[in-house]
UniProtKB/TrEMBL annotation:
Classification via InterPro entries: Asn/Gln_tRNA_amidoTrase-B-like (IPR003789), GatB_Yqey_C_2 (IPR023168), YqeY/Aim41 (IPR019004), YqeY/Aim41_N (IPR042184)
Molecular function GO labels: carbon-nitrogen ligase activity, with glutamine as amido-N-donor
Source organism of the structure: Lacticaseibacillus paracasei subsp. paracasei Lpp123
Family annotation (Pfam families): YqeY (PF09424)
Entry-linked SUPFAM superfamilies: GatB/YqeY motif (SSF89095)
Protein name, per record: GatB/YqeY domain-containing protein
Length: 147
């Protein structure tokens, strides 16, 4: 598991640097990966690892929006710092133009004609961009292209 080795190395580095935020996030990521491994009953594939990390990132992004609504700027800053740590371990995120290109190719692939084919497009598209693009961005681009 290359990711687990990377997390262990980062954990040691964070301990030496006394970087509490990074250390805390790395420990949470390791725990999430181990829990997923136990749940599935086998070593995680690279795709499964990315999926766990994407879930952790999504949870933190949702927390930021909730904290912002609640006026908790202290928690917003802390959670944004955690997001930066999680993003270090994920592959580079696709921008809107790149997602648009993949969406166009997928629409042609499944032969989608309009909004009624949204589900078909998303079902085929999501495995291609898993861990590389936010689901809400992908969804909005698909809706835009099918309109």
């Amino acid at each position: 598991m290359a990711l687990m080795d990377e997390l262990n190395a980062q954990m040691k580095q964070s301990m030496l640097a006394k970087d509490k935020v990074t250390l805390s996030v790395v420990r949470m990521l390791k725990t999430a990966l181990v829990n997923e491994k136990i749940k599935l009953g086998h070593d995680l594939s690279e795709e499964e690892e990315k999926s766990v990390l994407a879930t952790e990132l999504k949870q933190r992004k949702e927390s930021v929006s909730e904290f912002t609504k609640g006026g908790r700027d202290d928690l917003v800053q802390q959670t944004e710092a955690e997001i930066k740590v999680v993003e270090r371990f994920l592959p580079a995120q696709l921008n809107k133009a790149q997602v648009g290109d993949i969406v166009d190719a997928t629409i042609k692939e499944v032969g989608a004609k309009g909004k009624q084919d949204f589900g078909k497009v998303m079902k085929t598209l999501m495995p291609k961009v898993k861990g590389q693009a936010d689901g809400s961005l992908v969804s909005s681009v698909v809706k835009e292209k099918l309109s």
